[in-house]
Amino acid sequence: MIEARGLIKSYHDGEREVRPLDSVDFRCRRGEFILIVGRSGSGKTTFLNVLGGLTRPTAGSVRIGGKEILTLSDAEAAALRSRTIGFVFQFPGLLSTLSAQENVALSAEIGSSAGKRASAERAGDLLGRVGLRDKADSPPAHLSGGELKRTAIARALMNSPSLILADEPTADLDVDTEREVMELFREINREGTTIIMVTHNIDLASYASRVVRMEKGKLVPVEPVQ
Amino acid sequence: MLGLIARSIIHRPVRNGALILAFAFIAASLFSGHYLLAGASDSVKSEIAKLGADLIVVPANYTADSEAVLLRGEPSTFFFDNSVVPRIRNVSGVEQVEPQIFIASLTASCCSLPVQLIAIDPTQDFTIAPWLEQKREKPLGPDEIIVGSKIVAGGGTNLNFFGHSFIVAGKLDPTGTGLDTSIFLRTDDAYKMANDSQLNAVKPLILPQGVASAVLVRVNDAAEATNVSYRIVDQVPGTRVLTSSALVTTVSDQLAGITRILDLSALVATLVSLPLIALISLMVANERRREIGVLRALGATRSMIFRLILGESVIIAAIGGIIGIGASWIILVMFQSYISVMTRIPLSIPAVSSLVSISILTFVITVAVGGLAALYPAVRSALMEPYEAIRSGEL
Amino acid sequence: MVLDKKKQSHIPAGILILLGVLVVLTPWFIFPVCEIKGTSDTGMTDMNMNPGTHMKCWYTAEAETGVGALIILTGVALLALPGRVSRKTAGIIGGILGLIVILVPTVLVGVCSTPDAPCRIGTLPALLLLGAVIVITGIYLALSKETVAAGPN
After folding, report:
1. SS3 letters across C73-99
2. Model ipTM?
C-alpha cells in the first residue's frame, strides 16, 4: 500500500549538514502492523512525517495506494490527510478550547464530510470504544495523560482512515495504560487498518507483524517476529 | 470554522477584551469626529436660510458679537446709526431690508437664561412672520411680544424685562438657531422700556435714538448675493456683511479644529495599535503553532488556517467597532446640547443618511485595520510546514 | 480563565462602587447643577419660586448623593461577602437603585425646565447613562450562575 523510494532529507544547521533521512526505501502492504524502532535522533519521526505528507523530503518519492503524494496540491494533500490517514502524535495535541468529544469530531468538521449531529454521535461512539464515553464533555485540562492519548486515538479513527501513523504513542504512559493502548491498536489493525508505529520500546514488538529499525537515517531490517 | 474562532476568542477573555477595547477606541474616535462635523454643517447651513434673509449687515466693529448672536444665540447689545438703512436699500440688487435692534436682557447666572431681545418694526418684518406658530391677523400691538420656541412661556403669559411688563402674543416654531432663545418686541415698546428702566430696573437700559444693530437684506437674485454684499460694504462705510457661506466657514473652521484632533487621535490610535495588534497576533500564532500543525495534520488546508487566524482578528475588530460606534452614538446624542454649548458651535443630530454612511465607513475602516494587523501572522501560519509547526511547539 | 467564586464577585462589586462614586460626584463636580437660590433680577420670571429655596436640580443632586452612597455600600457589601446569594441580592438591590438613579431627575424630582440649562443638558444625560449601566450590572449579577473553571488561560 505504501511505497517509499530514495527518501532523503537534509538541511543545514549552521555550518554542518544534517541528514535525518539518508536514502530510505520502504514498502508496506495493506493491513500490516509495522513497528519502527531506533534510538532518538535516528530519523524515525522524520520518516513517519514524510510518509504522512507533513514534511517534504529533499529527494525521493512516496506512493500511497499507488498515488504519488509529493506532487499533490495543498488541497489534495489535505484531503488525503483528512480521509485516508489518521495521526497519533507523541503529545496529545488536543485543542484546549474544545471538549473531548468536540476534539474527536474535529477531524470530520475539517473534512466537512458529515453533518454536525452525525459527527457528534460517531465521536461519542469512538470515545466509548476507547472507554471514555463519560468524559465526552470534559475539556482536555481535566483528562489524565492516558485519557488524552486515548482521545487522540479516537480522533485519529474518526474518518475511518485506512492508514494510521503513530509517533511514540505510548511514551509517558505507565505500563498498564500502555498495554491498554497497544491492545486497542491491535484491535484496529485486525479490523483492517494499516498501522505504522514509531517507538523506542522494542518490547512492543510482539504486537506488530513486522519490525524495522532506523539507524542514522537508514532503514535496517530486523528479524520478523513469530 | 466560525465555531472554532468563537471558541478561541472566548478562551482568552482578558487579552481579547483588551483588543476589543482598542478597536472600540479607534472606531469611537473616527466616528465622533465626523458625526460632529456633519451635525455642525447641517445646523449652520440652515441658520441664515431659516432667517429668510440672504445677507445680514452688521456694524464693522461688532463682527464677533453679531456672530455670537446669530450663531449661538449669545445675547449682545450693539448698534450703528440707522441712517445706513435707506442707503442699503438703495444699493442695486437689494429687494427688501429689515432693521433690527439687539438688546441683551440682564444676565442672570446659570439656569435663568439670558435672553436676546430683538426690536423690530412689525410692518417691515419678513423674517419672523413665516415662523409664527399661528398666523397672526393683526400686527403686534403695544407691549405684545413674540417668543422663541425655547422660552418657557405661552400665549398670554406676562414677562418682565428691565422693569417693563409684556404679554406673550405668539411663539415661534423651533428653528434650531439662536432665534429659539430670542424675544421680539416692537421698536416703540423698546424705547418705552428703556425710558421706564431708569426708574424700575436694577440696571437701566440706554437705547440711543436712530440706531440699528443689524439690517437683514433680501436680494433680488440669490445668485447675486455676493456681489450685492460687496456693493453694500463699498457704498455704506462702517458695515460688514455676513453671508450664509461666511457663517458656515466660521463654524467649520471652529469645528475643523475639533475634528482634526479626533481624526488625529484615531490615526494615532491606529498607528500605535496596528503594530501592537500585529505583535499580539504573531505571538498568539506562535503559541498556537502546534495547534495549527495538528489542524493541518487533520486535513486543514492552508487557506483554512489563513482564514482562521485572519477571521479571529477581523471578528474582534468588528465587535470592537460595533461597541465603539454604538457607545459613541449613544453618548453623542444624549450629550448633544452639552457639547454644543461647551464648544460654542451650533449642533444638530445629523441626518439619518449621514449617520448611516459615517457608521458604515467607520466600521469598514476598523475591520480593515483588524485584518491588516493579522495579515502577516495569518500568512506565516498558513505557509508553515505542519511538521515544523508541531516540532517547534515542543519546548 | 479560571474564575473562582471570589473573583467573579470582585469585578462587578468594583464596578458598582465605581459607578456609585460617579453618581455622587456627577451632580456636584462633573456636571454641576445650578446653585442659585431663586432669581434676584428682573430677567426671566418663569421660574415660580420663592427666593431662598433651591431649584429642582439641587434637590435631585441631594437625592442622587444618597442613592449613590447606597450603591457604594452595596458594592462594598458584595466585596465583603462574595457568594451566589450575595450576588443575586446585590444584583437586585443594585438594579433597583439604578432605576432610582434614572427616575430621580426625570420623574421623582426633576431638573430645571429651561432647555439649555446645564442640569438638563449635562447632569441629566450623565445620570441617565450611569443609571442604565448600574441597572445592567445589577441584572448581570442577579442572573449570573456559578461558572465551572473553564481551563487554563
Report:
1. HHHHHHHHCCCHHHHHHHHHHHHHHHH
2. 0.85
